Amino acid sequence: MLKRIGKHTIEFTEKPRIVGFGSAVGKKEGEGPLKDWFDRVFVDTTMGGETWEKAEAMFQQETVQIAMEKAGLHKEAVDYIFAGDLLNQCVSSSYGLRGFEIPFLGQYGACSTMAQTISMAAVFTESGAADFCAAVTSSHFCSAERQFRYPLQYGGQRTPTAQWTVTGSGGLIIGAAENGKFKSCEDLLNKNGGINLKKQICIEHICTGRIIDMGITDANNMGAAMAGAAADTIYRFFNDTNTTKDDYDLIITGDLGQVGSDLMYELLKKQDIDISSNHKDCGLMIFDREKQDVHAGGSGCGCSASVLCSYFLKNMLKRQLNNILFVATGALMSPTIVQQGESIPGIAHLVHLKNCTE
Amino acid sequence: MLKRIGKHTIEFTEKPRIVGFGSAVGKKEGEGPLKDWFDRVFVDTTMGGETWEKAEAMFQQETVQIAMEKAGLHKEAVDYIFAGDLLNQCVSSSYGLRGFEIPFLGQYGACSTMAQTISMAAVFTESGAADFCAAVTSSHFCSAERQFRYPLQYGGQRTPTAQWTVTGSGGLIIGAAENGKFKSCEDLLNKNGGINLKKQICIEHICTGRIIDMGITDANNMGAAMAGAAADTIYRFFNDTNTTKDDYDLIITGDLGQVGSDLMYELLKKQDIDISSNHKDCGLMIFDREKQDVHAGGSGCGCSASVLCSYFLKNMLKRQLNNILFVATGALMSPTIVQQGESIPGIAHLVHLKNCTE
Questions:
Q1: Which CATH architecture best describes the domain B14-191?
Q2: Which of A158, A206, B87, B134 has its CA 20 to 30 A from that of B79?
Q3: Is A94 close to B211, i.e. CB distance below 8 A?
Q4: pLDDT tens digit string along A109-133?
Q5: What CATH homologous superfamily does B203-355 map to?
Q6: Which among A68, A93, A82, A183 is positioned nearest to A124, based on CA atoms?
Q7: What is A2-191's CATH number?
């Protein structure tokens, strides 16, 4: 059952479960601090294909496949796919996933898409609309650079506030809670090395973002453009649930990077909230900023998606983490409208994940 | 409650209601056969603004505003907005709707977006996640032409299969059924000239589309690219619900145009289904093809959205129509990936609307 808490938070009383997840990244990400956590590292950025766009589509296909395998599910058992990406017309999702023949609902939340697809999948499974839903997103450095900034061959200088788009994807399968609905994952326990996924990671709450415009017009300063949205969503969620940062092991943002994280702290401090002591940003984790020359950090839909679906969910399975807020952040701009002088609005969607005790 | 029927159809047992709707179109649409049905006709395609993109954003803002007014709702009463459009990164939605400060979930279904946003809004209201949700989309001939085809100034010749992107938007508000949840539209009856909207147009079923690729590679033949998806969704819905075309007053497709409609008939005939006698295509209704030089018909997210939210919903209020299937169709391509030699996959989402009898 879905229960509304406060103004914008939804509580899931049956608690949908994450029954499988997968991650795949490119070469640079595979050389970073999280390299041992990813399911796949592809050193060829075209995945043996012709173009970066087609490669990115293959990343999504790959992570959905891994997630279904880990869940012990055939594609026929998955009722809906929620997916989106940064490419124009979200073609990474539609081309990467067309082969599955699963009803498809394209989502667009820019780099917040992972949290948005999880939110939708959770509402669909909890409400009885579906038994299993896939949630997936991706990004690719090369396809994003040429679409949003300059052709790679141009060799443009990057400003200090610029972030490095992650080449990668994260995908997961959400199943309805155990009210007899599980049809085809009896063998989950064995397939996951003794860990019974369907008993463990629950979706407790979601809090959907509002469009927040901080007036930033610099397309090389996405962190700042998204900081206000992250602060707004975290603040509203704490209010709705009457909790504080101390109630969670970690608060994880998507890709604020250093500039955006600092700005978010500042904005939250105005509300007497200080999350800096248990906050992590996926954009600051995926690369080694000293050695990998990524300026303010990683970014892209694939950043928060690949880090969630590797490091964080695996640490939840190990019970190193039990209770986290995943706040993916997005900048809802296009190059066209920024060139027309518009500022860049941000959005942040929150998902509360918890290890189930029963 | 959401009840699953067959494989991919959801039945709403409480039946969410359309409590307000609005339409706004441009000059050419305002000179077409449906001119008297639209709420607003703007003869200036930039809406007095600077660019076509910003004008398109204003179209969405306008229709949501009209829909809220007709529903007698303030923006604070609307829990979620589901919106999307054809522009890169869906900026018409995010820029047009940021002022409302309503939690925002961007949807991307290309020209099928209106049916997709209605589907999501219906699931959210029926499941208890929301009391009221807005669903809106738009398109604009000038912004679409320069993004998907050629700059208008180039004066490119159009092929006979080409369609004309509608400048317009349609938006509506869906409210949870009358289980005491309606908070702020007691005065609906008076605001709508004696018609009590909340008692009338119900969402009975939705059937979500799959990505269907017919192998079409001509970006000037979208109708053909989408015909397979429309046939697939209609066929699956008839199967799931054990109904035939005779059970409905009309089956309405979004923007197949002449070429796509004919191809859809042919595909359905292979399954022994002939819907030609009670089928209408919004793309064939919005323009006078004899006089308005639009080749195969109208297209774009705004085509099915503006025709649904004017002619069709108003005819339901008048009880000229009581029971319709709205099947919006989309082509999930981008110019980049088509230039890379890829074919154009289609998708079609179905919404079953019915006048409530009680």
A1: 3-Layer(aba) Sandwich (3.40)
A2: B87
A3: yes
A4: 999 999 999 999 999 999 999 999 9
A5: Stage V sporulation protein AD (3.40.47.40)
A6: A82
A7: 3.40.47.40
What is the average pLDDT across B17-29?
96
Q: How does the average pLDDT of chain B come out, rounded?
A: 93
User: Does residue A91 surpass a pLDDT of 70?
Assistant: yes
Where does CATH 3.40.47.40 sit in chain A? 2-191, 203-355
Q: Nearest Cβ partner of B89 from A110, A116, A128?
A: A110
B190 vs B20, B49, B68, B198, CA distance in Å? 13, 35, 15, 12
Instruction: Report DSSP state, residue A328.
Output: E
Mean pLDDT (chain A, rounded): 93
Interface contact B95, partner A, CB < 8 A: yes
Nearest CB neighbour to B127, from listed A97, A123, A334: A123
Output DSSP code: residue B50.
S
CA distance B337 to B77: 41
Q: Do A119 and B105 touch (CB under 8 A)?
A: yes
Q: Measure the CA–CA gap between B148 and B169, rounded to whole angstroms.
A: 19
Give the span between the Cα atoms of B126 and B3, in whole angstroms: 11
- As a whole number of angstroms, the distance between CA A105 and CA B119 comes to 10
CA–CA dist A87, A181 (Å, integer): 36
pLDDT digits (tens, 9 = 90+) for B300-356: 999 999 999 999 999 999 999 999 999 999 999 999 999 999 999 999 999 999 998
Q: Where in chain B is the domain with CATH 3.40.47.40?
A: 14-191, 203-355
DSSP codes, A59-125: HHHHHHHHHHHHHT--GGG--EEEEEESSGGGHHHHHHHGGG---EEEEE-GGGHHHHHHHHHHHHH
ipTM of this predicted complex? 0.95
Q: pLDDT tens, A144-192? A: 999 999 899 998 888 989 999 999 999 999 998 765 444 434 444 444 4
Q: Is B94 an 8 Å CB contact of chain A?
A: yes
Collapsing DSSP to helix, strand or coil, A33 comes out as coil
Taking an 8 Å cut-off on Cβ atoms, the answer to whether B86 and A87 are in contact is no
Reading phi first (left if > 0) and then psi (alpha if -120 to 50, else beta), residue B293 is in left
| Segments of B176-303 assigned E as strands | 201-207, 212-213, 250-253, 279-281, 298-299
pLDDT for the residue B138? 98
The percentage of residues in chain A with a pLDDT greater than 70, rounded to a whole number, is 94
What distances in angstroms separate CA A341 from CA A333, B92, B267, one per listed residue? 11, 15, 47
| pLDDT bucket at A196, cuts 50 / 70 / 90 | low
User: Which candidate from A2, A119, A336 shows the least CB-CB separation from B127?
Assistant: A2
Q: Is A210 on the interface with B (CB under 8 A)?
A: yes
Taking contacts as CB-CB distances below 8 angstroms, the residues of chain A near B107 are 105-108
Q: What residues in B contact A80, CB-CB < 8 Å?
A: 208
Please compute, for residue A204, the number of CA atoms within 13 A of its CA located in the half-sphere on the CB side.
Answer: 16
Check A106 against B109: CB less than 8 A apart.
yes
Above 60 in pLDDT, residue B166?
yes
- For an interface test with A, the pick among B82, B94, B183 (most A C-beta atoms closer than 10 Å) comes out as B94
Of A177-186, A206-215, B225-234, B272-281, the poorest mean pLDDT is in A177-186
List the one residue out of B289, B263, B290, B260 whose CA is nearest residue B111.
Answer: B260
Please compute Rg for chain A using Cα positions: 19
pLDDT in tens, B191-201: 444 455 566 89
pTM above 0.90, yes or no: yes
> How close B123 gets to chain A, by Cα (Å)?
8
Nearest CB partner across the interface for A88, out of B88, B101, B124: B88
